[in-house]
Design goal:
By secondary structure, the chain is α/β, with parallel strands linked by helices. The protein has one domain: 3-Layer(aba) Sandwich (Rossmann fold), CATH 3.40.50. The chain contains 6 helices and 7 strands; from the N terminus they run E-H-E-H-E-H-E-H-E-H-E-E-H. It has a 7-stranded mixed beta sheet with strand order 3-2-1-4-5-6-7, with helices on both faces. Helix 1 links the parallel strand 1 and strand 2. It is globular and about 50 Å long. The two termini are 17 Å apart. 40% of the residues are buried. One of its GO terms (molecular function) is phosphoribosylglycinamide formyltransferase activity.
Length: 188
């Protein structure tokens, strides 16, 4: 019997962090489900190629709590113990967050508490910051407000655009997220 914790990853898009989590699977966790609110999210192909079960359903036409209940039912049906958000572009209902309290993390492309939400790289450049980066945090009801458990810093160069900065931050996300997920699952 494995001591690895059963993890689900929620995505909405390309799935680059999902791929990194799959490739980095280690003794601490195994990904047993990938769920998406975008039925044709490109990242789902990474899950399928790895033989990981997929649940993909559009949230359109459903209330937030109704859709979250569908996701929650899938997580529980797969005996998930922890959840990793990896480019999941939906704000979660309070009930869903409470149900996974302390067992759900997100990676965010800024040095939280700076620049919650979207357009983080442009905002850091416009502010004249010397550093940007990424943060892994425990998901709470407030948007990007949960306790930070890991961060990585990236210098902002004078020639940076939001796209060039984003590309360098993404490299650090791929290094940081598997380690942070493994650390969380070791505490469960």
């Amino acid at each position: 019997m494995s001591d690895r914790r059963r993890v689900a990853v929620l995505i909405s898009g390309r799935g680059s962090n999902l791929k990194t989590l799959i490739d980095a699977e280690q003794d601490a966790y195994e990904i047993v489900l990938v769920a998406s609110n975008v039925e044709d999210a490109p990242g789902l192909d990474f899950a399928r190629a790895a033989g990981i079960p997929v649940f993909a359903k559009s949230h359109k036409g459903l209330k937030r709590a109704e859709f979250d209940a569908l996701i929650d039912a899938q997580l529980r049906a797969h005996d998930v113990e922890a959840v990793a958000l990896a480019g999941y572009m939906r704000i979660l209902s309070e009930g869903f967050v409470e149900g996974w309290a302390g067992r759900m993390i997100n990676i965010h492309p800024s040095l939280l508490p700076l620049y919650k939400g979207l357009d983080t790289h442009a905002r850091a450049i416009e502010a004249g910051d010397h550093f940007a980066g990424c943060s892994v945090h425990i998901v709470t009801a407030g948007l990007d407000e949960g306790p930070v458990i890991a961060q990585a810093r990236v210098p902002i160069m004078p020639w940076d655009t939001p796209d060039t900065l984003s590309a360098r931050v993404l490299i650090e996300e791929h290094r940081l997220y598997p380690r942070a997920l493994a650390a969380l699952t070791r505490t469960l």
